[in-house]
Write a structure and sequence with these properties.
Radius of gyration: 21 Å
Strand order of the largest sheet: 1-7-6-5-2-3-4
Shape: elongated
Number of helices: 12
Strand content: 5-15%
Largest sheet: 7 strands, mixed
Number of strands: 7
Amino acid sequence: MRADGTGTGRYGVVDDQQEQPEHGYEHEAGSGILHVFGQQLKLCRIRAGLERAEFGSMTGYSASTIASFEQGRRIPPPKFIDKADELLDAGGLLKASKEEVARAQYPAFFRDAARLEAQAVALHVYATKAVPGLLQTEEYARAVFRMWRPLLSEETITQRVAARLDRQEIFSRTPLRTISFVIEEFLLRRLHGGRAAMRGQLEQILLHGHRRNVEVQVMPIAQEEHAGLEGPFTLIETKEGQRIAYVEAYKDSRLYTDRTSVRDLEEQYGILRAQALTPRESLELVEKLLGEA
């Protein structure tokens, strides 16, 4: 909550297509929930009388990877946590931390946003800097993360790509979520990752664009009137009926919950959709660009 009482807070972007690299993120993994989980894992393993190599062979991981999990340097996947809890007879202790551990795969500024996104019943994204994260292919996402400055480590890139792909489960969750995108045309023409990567990305957009619960619209370069010149944002509606907006700027992202601010952005998004190509026209344009790729 800001001092002016508007209900604005700094939480992180809801769609990390514009994620800014966070200084010091490389060192975050050794603290917080990962450190606590790692200590619990180690104590459970020792109590079970297992060496790291033995436990690793039982779970399909090397001894060095188990050590990384226990030291909080790597983020264990959910399937590993489930299996470890059962093999070590932890009684649900390890499983209880699974959700928080999963959130640790995101930069700190995006963790609350990831939670809100996962719980959304409706999600509307206006993208101006890259194809929205929810639509990105693995190859395109990896190319985007490789371009961040300061440079990210290969391990961090791998974790962030995996996290981004995991978020895309929202498309198939039941009941189906209502999801829409307005994407600037020039983003579909920019060859992030090379021509082959962009071809795969266009195919991915077509795939999701044909889902019954998804609408993709393209804002054409030739459009003379444009309601979104202030930049990208995302609108979220929760199952409780709360409407939230995230707005992004350089090294900053703001959460708006007050009705006036959210209504203003909802109106802006409505105008953007009216100015953009229709969903059918948009997919036809994507097919045309795919043919040229």
